[in-house]
Amino acid sequence: MLIPFEEEYKKKYYSLIDQIFDSNFWSDGKMLALFEEKFSEYANLNSVALSNGGTALLSIFHYLNVKNYEVIIPTNTFYATSVAAKMAGADIVYADCNRGDLCISLEDIKKKVNSNTKAVVVVHIGGHIAFEIEEIALFCRQNKIYLVEDCAHSHGATFLKKAAGHWGFAGAYSFYATKTLPLGEGGMVVTKDQDFVDWLKIYRNYGKKIVNGKVSYPMKDGFNYRMSEFTAALGVVQLERLPKILDWKRMLADKYDKIFSNRVHFPPGMESGFYKYIVFDYSLKHETGKVFSYSDFGHAIDGTDKQKSVSFPNSDWISEHHKCPPIYLGWEHAEKTTDELRYLLIGKQ
Ligand SMILES: Cc1ncc(COP(=O)(O)O)c(C=O)c1O
């Protein structure tokens, strides 16, 4: 099936591409500034675009200088979260998740934290915000530990009307091809910290600073983490299209809510962006990949499960018990009635 992208948005995209050709800037131009401005409005946070979600995470860990410190990461995430912290020199300590929201458990964070813990990473798994985010943020503040949010799944999600990235020092979004707001490749750091914003703009450009045409290199370990003008132009259009994508997903989720009682149940104030729709203990006739399963778990990939006697009972349970009925934009059966979908997915009238 083709990835849907309606004619009206193609036309908008082509007109922005024309503007890029007319401007003669294929990088570091007006589209990047416009995408960052629009994303800042969307998230209500400062936004700096980078080449992908992994480099967005890496930049946060570099800035926080996690080298030789411990960073607590949920084992139930994509390995990118761990690799980014490792590349910045951190020692990874894995934590378990909750069964209710699939996100890192505060109870396990409390067991893993010590005087060498520099940061805790919350990954908002599946499209909603971690249910314990307020309590985790408070715990981190009280213990002077940085909170980092991995927002790769959480476009369109809000909790208490705040977008992902509001609780931590910074958040990292991914625009990989399968995400709710896909650009093929791309990432965005969101933060309230203006010094970090200034640092990022140098970091993503080989440590180069340009003021009134005068070039200097104040940073020695920057690299090329830039986003091109063409990707940024698609970002502008996709952000405009995001409400339509979310309406479509929420329309399907409303039907699924009537079919599946054993599922993730959101607390008051939570709006999921439905990167995935997550159910437990159903046998499904149509499904997409699980959010994550045992072979994706950081401790399983690192092999630390064999070296130490670590146990992550809730992550193991999630891996075994959850499934995801399709909720990707354009799924061919989405317009069917609830009864038809029930029959299609679980074979019951
Ligand atoms: C939870 C999580 N974090 C980070 C990433 C990395 O993003 P990217 O592929 O844009 O580098 C992904 C997936 O792509 C992800 O699922």
Task: Describe what you observe in this structure.
This protein has twelve helices and 14 strands. The relative contact order is 0.16. It starts with 6 loop residues before the first helix and ends with a helix. It has two domains: 7-236, Type I PLP-dependent aspartate aminotransferase-like (Major domain) (Aspartate Aminotransferase, domain 2), CATH 3.40.640; 242-346, Aspartate Aminotransferase, domain 1 (Alpha-Beta Complex), CATH 3.90.1150. Helix 2 (30-43) runs parallel beside helix 8 (229-259) and helix 3 packs parallel to helix 4 (80-87). 39% of the residues lie in helices and 15% in strands. It is globular and about 70 Å long. The structure holds pyridoxal-5'-phosphate. The site of pyridoxal-5'-phosphate has 14 residues, from helix 3 and helix 4.
